[in-house]
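Whiteboard transcription, Tuesday session. T.W. wrote the structure tokens on the left side:
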């Protein structure tokens, strides 16, 4: 674990998380079977909307570390929301594995040449995002502190 923490410092983790999120937002509109972008499907906007919560948490974590502040109830609630978003990331990773597994089911059909390379890229990016999210949770606990519910009743740093 120390080796991973040396390679993925907090700054690198935050930047890489934002970069991976940005790329996955772009690919959330991509249809792997047709190799086209679908901007008018409402379901394609779920991931970009949910990732806003992740971006906010990354900013709050960076701010708390930079200003050497403690945790507060708002950060705790935001992290709890991110736990739910994390489950969506796990679902999307499983969904991308399923889509890749259908490659051999459609052997008689013409699939675009980008199906496998982009499918593997998206799958790897989802698993990277899952790992980076877990790493961000670890950094929050190590650098900002644990949530102490008894001490939080009088703190409101977002006023």
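and on the right, the sequence the group agreed on:
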């Amino acid at each position: 674990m120390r080796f991973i923490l040396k390679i993925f410092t907090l700054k690198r983790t935050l930047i890489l998380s934002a970069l991976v999120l940005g790329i996955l937002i772009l690919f959330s509109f991509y249809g792997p079977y047709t190799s086209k972008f679908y901007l008018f499907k409402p379901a394609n906007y779920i991931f970009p909307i949910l990732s806003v919560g992740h971006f906010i948490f990354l900013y709050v974590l960076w701010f708390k570390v930079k200003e050497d502040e403690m945790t507060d109830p708002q950060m705790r609630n935001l992290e709890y929301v991110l736990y739910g978003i994390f489950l969506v990331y796990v679902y999307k990773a499983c969904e991308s594995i399923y889509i890749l597994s259908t490659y051999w089911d459609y052997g008689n059909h013409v699939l675009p040449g980008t199906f496998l390379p982009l499918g593997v890229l998206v799958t790897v990016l989802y698993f990277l995002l899952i790992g980076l999210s877990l790493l961000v949770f670890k950094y929050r606990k190590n650098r900002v502190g644990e949530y102490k519910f008894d001490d939080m009743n009088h703190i409101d740093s977002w006023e």
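Someone added at the bottom: The longest helix spans residues 115-144.
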